[in-house]
UniProtKB/TrEMBL annotation:
A family per Pfam: PPR
Species in which this protein is naturally found: Arabis nemorensis
GO BP annotation list: RNA modification
Domain of life per record: Eukaryota
Similarity section: Belongs to the PPR family. PCMP-H subfamily.
Gene Ontology molecular function: any one: RNA binding
Family annotation (InterPro entries): PPR_At4g14850-like_plant, PPR_rpt, TPR-like_helical_dom_sf
PPR repeats, residue ranges: 40-70
Name of the protein: Pentatricopeptide repeat-containing protein
UniProtKB keywords: Repeat
Amino acid sequence: MFDRSSHRDVVSYTALITGFASRRDIGSARKLFDEIPLKDVVSWNAMISGYAENGNFKEALELFREMNVRPDESTMVTVVCACAQSGSIELGRQVHSLIDDHGFGSNLKIVNVVSWRQHVVCSRDCRTRM
């Protein structure tokens, strides 16, 4: 039906991406994402969070690196969570640097997520070492 629609804009694409991702059909979500002629931050966030919510943390972070629009607070929260779930300390350092580079270092929501995720990851690491 969407293929025949005359009203195919970034909003309708993004809504479908979110729907497919929530139904765990990440392949269809990515196919639609790739078809969007002009992506905005919301469409990028939808695809990045779709990957992250489906456990595809590596893909979420790779897509973030490809992002060609300025990330917003939602982007950074999703990326921090994906980074923490991936367990990569090096990626964590890179994301922390990006947070500072994009001026989010003083954003209370992001700082809280970073602090909370660091606590969870450190606690998990400590338990596995015991």
